[in-house]
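B., you asked whether I could sanity-check this one before it goes into the benchmark set. Here's the sequence:
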Amino acid sequence: MRRNLLIISLLAAISMSTHAQGVSVEQKIDSVNGIFIGQQAHMTVDVTADKGAKVTFPDWKPLTYLVPGVELLAIDGDTVDADNGQQTIRRRLTITSFDENLYPLPPVEVKVGGKAYQGNQLALKVVTVDVDTVHPNQFYPPKDVQNNPFLWSEWRTPFLLSLLFVALLGIALWLYLRLKANKPIITSIRIIKKILPHQRAMKAIDEIKAEHMTSSEDQKEYYTRLTDTLRQYIRERFGFNAMEMTTSEIIYNLQESGDSTMIAELKDLFETADLVKFAKYSTLMSENDMNLVNAVNFIDLTKLEGQPTEERIVPQLTEGDKKTRKNRITIKALLWTIAVVETALLVYVLYSVMQLM
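And here's what the prediction gave me:
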């Protein structure tokens, strides 16, 4: 019986030892050689336990004393997976002290699964700056703010660049006034209604009809207007200057152009008009009507269909306009260049002055 109890006790001890070996608490500090007064140190507490185990750290609160004389400033931490299904939970404490001393840092007690475990004891050494008390005359009060001596070599470049900035600004103002004085040359393509030659001629004949000139006593004016209308039409339609030609020249040029439409009737009309205008020949009303009909038939038979009814008018620039436009482009390019240079100069001068002040 005693032997069984002994075996059971040994197995329980081995089990407890195995379980205890599954949890470790490591406590360390990064300032082994100590810190100066007011400096900060970091103490870390690493707890290695099985994943899912409940780990409870002490209830630390920032801006309180970890131990008398050692102030706790901040707390942070993280969790890192370890081997064999374990994990390491870390707490990092930022501490400081303002009194020279050697402070013992007691072991941190951590509970894992309700069971308490402790880290190892540490010490924080806080030292002060050595002060020479043997020679008190070598202590000096804080110095006042002193003005740097003015050195022209340091300020020369910003000053000269500032003068260049002002000069370029004046040039830019002058160029702007020049640009404002030179008004822009605005050109636009106009599209106008184009009256075809036969339309213009028929409009003039309609006016002759409306004024009843075939029955007018002033036959000279009637034939003058009728032949002028035909001459203008022939010039626009066939391309030769019929306004300055005689009747025979007009007939000859029409035949040379390959168009023999109503040549005989047109020749009779022009010859009758010449007789009326220069020989004071009198015609009958029926003859006047016939000549008007022949003029209308000639226009109707020789007109060109399908010509464009709109005309694009492209303005032509004079040499002065071209020079003005070129000057405006040059001035604008100079203004943009000066603006970029001025911006760079201003930034550089301001930066240089700030460095010297």
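One thing to flag: The helical segments are 2-21, 152-181, 197-210, 219-238, 247-256, 263-278, 285-302, 319-356. Otherwise nothing jumped out at me.
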